[in-house]
């Protein structure tokens, strides 16, 4: 059985546009492909790179990653028509038995459908859900994507939800879909990470893009109102070194006004390097208004950094399941301040080894690869349930 994934992969060193094109550093799809490859599955990953200068193939991780170039402008305005044609045409040349599309926010699901091959889709960045939390303008890219998402999912049967938070939304919104609940996995190298990394006292990490959905402005208000703010430092991983929008400029400026030289901006850091940097911080604060999984929380737990997460998100579900982390009421600045204090208080008694075992048992690479293998077999056999 050959599986071709269509999804996101950070640009690897050797790509002709490495460091020129800024891509999201998240590696959740790469981690799954790596887990499947190490489990003996035949996998390839295809990523569309708008604005890239040429095609590129990377084989350094043990499976092929195909980077396909395409135009940068007018993609959503044309309903991603040329994107889905370009991607689907390439994917068919790889002769897959089944296609796994990751996300509905780009052309990946649309391309999978155009191949006429069996496929599944993983729910990530569901715009029908995001737009409920952060309503966009009536005429906007987010509205176009939600329209395309609804139409594409109307023709879909199998969808992977990474959490009950997402699964419940899908069951309410798209009741015809067969939902398979499988969490993300992580880079297996994290299993070798030490849990006794020396911590910077009073340090907090924030990992993610600086946009309203990720809630950095909520963390700013909590730090501004904290009586202990002069003893805290903040490390931001994911701010853009260039092309920052108005929200990012304003929020970073606010943080500088409060923290001064205790604000450390690390920029867009390769996913493989983030856990080791987060390991030096005492807390990870993830104040997202909406979040469908929260890989940064799992990675923090694996390297011995205590997470603070917002309620009503998949992150709350994850820390409750693992039994480590502190939850605050979503968008409640005062309660976030309370959670940060509680997080620091929890550190001395935290059994980090027990937490690492719990995470590995639940979503270790071998277990997640096998769950997907079973799903693909069910889909290919035409069976509805995993």
- Give the number of DSSP strands: 14
Helix content: 25-40%
User: How would you describe the shape?
Assistant: globular
Task: Please tell me the overall pLDDT.
Answer: 93
Which segments are poorly predicted (pLDDT under 50) over 5 or more consecutive residues? Answer: none
Q: Nearest-angstrom radius of gyration? A: 20 Å
Q: Specify the CATH architecture of the largest domain.
A: 3-Layer(aba) Sandwich
Order of helices and strands: EHEEEHEHEHHEHEEHEHEHEHEHEHHH
Describe this structure in words.
- The structure is a single chain.
- By secondary structure, the protein is an alpha/beta fold.
- 39% of the residues lie in helices and 18% in strands.
- It has 2 domains: 2-185 and 364-380, Rossmann fold (3-Layer(aba) Sandwich); 189-362, Glycogen Phosphorylase B (Rossmann fold).
- Strands 3-4-2-1-5-6-7-8 form an 8-stranded mixed β-sheet, with helices on both faces. A 6-stranded parallel β-sheet has the order 11-10-9-12-13-14, sandwiched between helices.
- Helix 6 links the parallel strand 7 and strand 8.
- It is globular.
- The mean pLDDT is 93.
In a nutshell, what does this entry contain?
By secondary structure, the chain is of the alpha/beta class. It folds into 2 domains: about 1-185 and about 365-380, Rossmann fold (3-Layer(aba) Sandwich), CATH 3.40.50; about 190-360, Glycogen Phosphorylase B (Rossmann fold, 3-Layer(aba) Sandwich), CATH 3.40.50.2000.
């Amino acid at each position: 059985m050959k599986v071709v994934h269509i999804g996101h992969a950070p640009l690897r060193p050797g790509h002709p546009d490495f460091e020129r094109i800024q891509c999201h550093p998240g590696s959740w799809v790469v981690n799954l492909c790596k887990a499947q490859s190490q489990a003996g599955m035949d996998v390839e990953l295809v990523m569309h790179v708008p604005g890239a200068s040429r095609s590129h193939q990377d084989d350094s991780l043990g499976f092929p990653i195909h980077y396909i170039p395409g135009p940068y402008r007018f993609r959503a305005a044309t309903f991603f028509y040329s994107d889905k044609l370009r991607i689907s045409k390439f994917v068919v040349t790889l002769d897959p038995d089944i296609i796994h599309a990751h996300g509905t926010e780009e052309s990946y699901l649309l391309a999978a459908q155009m191949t006429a091959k069996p496929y599944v889709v993983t729910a990530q960045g569901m715009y029908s859900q995001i737009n409920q939390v952060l309503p966009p303008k009536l005429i906007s890219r987010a509205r176009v994507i939600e329209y395309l998402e609804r139409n594409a999912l109307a023709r879909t049967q199998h969808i992977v939800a990474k959490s009950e938070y997402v699964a419940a939304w899908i069951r309410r919104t798209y009741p015809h879909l067969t939902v398979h609940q499988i969490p993300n996995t992580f880079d297996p190298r994290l299993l070798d990470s030490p849990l006794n990394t020396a911590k910077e006292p009073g340090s907090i990490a924030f990992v993610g893009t600086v946009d309203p959905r990720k809630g950095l402005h909520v963390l700013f208000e909590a730090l501004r109102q904290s009586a202990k703010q002069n003893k805290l430092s903040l490390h931001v991983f994911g701010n853009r070194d260039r092309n920052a929008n108005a929200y990012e400029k304003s929020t970073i400026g606010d943080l500088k006004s409060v923290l001064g030289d205790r604000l450390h901006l690390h920029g867009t850091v390769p996913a493989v390097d983030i856990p080791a940097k987060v390991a030096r911080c005492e807390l990870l604060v993830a104040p997202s208004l909406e979040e469908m999984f929260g890989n940064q929380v799992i990675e923090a737990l694996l390297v011995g950094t205590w997470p603070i997460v917002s309620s009503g998100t998949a992150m709350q579900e994850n820390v409750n399941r693992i039994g480590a982390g502190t939850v605050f009421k979503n968008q409640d600045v005062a309660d976030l301040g309370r959670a940060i204090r509680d997080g620091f208080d929890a550190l001395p008694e935290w059994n980090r080894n027990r937490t690492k075992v719990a995470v590995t048992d639940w979503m270790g690479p071998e277990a997640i690869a096998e769950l997907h293998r079973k799903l693909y077999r069910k889909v290919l056999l035409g069976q509805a349930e995993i």
